[in-house]
Amino acid sequence: MVRLVTHNLLACHAKDCNTNNFPLGFQNVQLEIREAEFNPDFVRAFLPKIEWNALVKTARELGDTSLPDEQPEMVDDDFLQNLHHVLFELHVIEGAMVCPNCKHVYPISDGIPNMLLAEHEIA
Amino acid sequence: MSRPELVAPPEIYYGDSEAKKYTQNTRNQQIQADMTYRALELLNLPPEKPAFLLDIGCGSGLSGEILDEEGYNWVGVDIAPSMLEVALEREVEGDLFLQDIGQGLGFRPGSFDGAISISVLQWLLNAETSHPTSSPPHRLQLFFTTLHSALRNPSRAVFQFYPSSDDQIQLITSIAQKAGFGGGIVVDFPNSKKAKKVFLCLFVGGGGGQQEIPKGLEGEEEDGKARFERRRERERSRAKNGRRRTIKDRDWILKKKELYRKRGKEEVPRDSRYTGRKRKPVF
Ligand SMILES: C[S@@+](CC[C@H](N)C(=O)[O-])C[C@H]1O[C@@H](n2cnc3c(N)ncnc32)[C@H](O)[C@@H]1O
Ligand SMILES: [Zn+2]
User: Fold this and answer.
1) How far is the CA of B103 from the centre of ligand 2 (A)?
2) Angle at CA of residue B46, ends B41 and B50, nearest 5°
3) Chain A: nearest CA to B195, how far in angstroms?
4) Which terminal residue of chain A, N or C, has fewer Cβ atoms less than 10 Å from its own Cβ?
């Protein structure tokens, strides 16, 4: 279950891949929406960690257009609900994540991304 | 008792049948749970603040289930597919990654508010091949440097592990220090052969003496057991009373979907008789 909360923290870790290695692009995605308890405090606490542009872009790629281009200054409940949905309720269960820089493909199967590197890709 | 990490590489040792055996053994469940509670205690997170944690070598989720119970959000990484499959079957809440921690982690700086690792680190002390990238010091260094950057400043990472010598402890702590960590070793029940537990307690930031190495627990095994069990009861009831999450009911999901439809969002899944049902294990 790759949720966007985790995807937003994930960069490519292959050898010498240090720039333009985020966000990993989703491919051939099978999406599942799974309800999660809304915890406004947690969503709020997570806000400073988010790379906003990457989150909006990825959410839209997955068909969710509920987030504004810019992170709003006023954080109201409606916004937190949308953000909660995007971060915790969209689950990618099949497909792959591809590094925008080195093009390494991290396959996702049964909700688990395979982050293993080949010998020559290890730093 | 032979040491599993000397028998075979982890992803082989923890194959389908061992993964099941390991997870179903009630005594093992109890031991892993107790050590997880103790690790959380040593993690010393600010109370009542939501935290996003990393479970390093999460396995089949015995440690992760405690994190769920305590209301933490978490991500787990493990190298053994069979262990992760069991974790999926047990429907733990954390996101799971198939990952060799000795290859380094890819999380952005400051991603986690803390990390725990229960009974894993000893696996990194054994080389699998003669390739330079698989020498234990190299793997430890890659792991600790990338972990250090993935943690928030200030925060902690707590590892319970089974060193087989003081040299191993020395090797691990010196590499962790080079990676930027402060902290050190905490030994619980040092005088009890059975109850003795070693924790590596690492600090990110918090200079100026704010982060002090915690004290180990003293006494004999019996005391320790009683203490852990009491705590477990307490934690249980706390989890039940407050922080434990509930599965959203069907009405809530339907309302939510309705909201999306009103906003013209496409591809909202149709309501079906499956809506709001607990997802079945994939395997
Ligand atoms: C004794 S189990 C502990 C699992 C879990 N933390 C618990 O408390 O039940 C050790 C785990 O470490 C994992 N492990 C060993 N070496 C690893 C590595 N290099 N990277 C990731 N996980 C590893 C194994 O696959 C196994 O699941
Ligand atoms: Zn890359």
Assistant:
1) 14
2) 105
3) 35
4) C
Q: Which residue of B has its CA nearest to A60?
A: B265
Helix or strand holding residue A54 (H, E): helix A52-61
Ligand 1 proximity of B101 Cβ (cutoff 6 Å): yes
Alpha-carbon distance of B30 to B36, in angstroms, equals 10
Nearest Cα residue in chain A from B269:
A33
Ligand 1 midpoint to CA B78 (Å): 6
Report pLDDT for A106: 98
Structure tokens at B9: 């590489």
Cα A112 to Cα B8: distance, rounded to the nearest angstrom: 24
Average pLDDT, chain B: 83
Q: Are B51 and B43 in contact (CB under 8 A)?
A: no
Alpha-helical segments (H) within chain B = 4-7, 10-13, 16-24, 26-43, 62-69, 81-89, 136-150, 166-178, 221-238, 250-262
pLDDT on residue B21: 97
Chain A contact for B274 (CB, 8 A cutoff) = no
Q: Is B37 in the pocket of ligand 1 (CB under 6 A)?
A: no
Is residue B14 within 8 A of residue B86, CB to CB? The reply is: no
Nearest by CB to residue A49, choosing from B49, B88, B110, is B110
Q: Which of A2-6, A116-120, B163-167, B216-220 has the lowest mean pLDDT?
A: B216-220
Evaluate if residue B254 carries a pLDDT over 80.
Answer: no
Report the predicted TM-score, pTM, of the whole model to 2 decimal places: 0.86
Mutate to test the interface with A, among B69, B95, B134, B142 (most CBs of A within 10 A): B95
For B12, half-sphere exposure in the C-beta direction (CA atoms, 13 angstrom radius) is 7
What is the pLDDT, as a whole number, of residue A22? 98
A110: nearest CB among B111, B133, B282: B282
Contacts of B225 (CB under 8 A, 6+ apart): B195
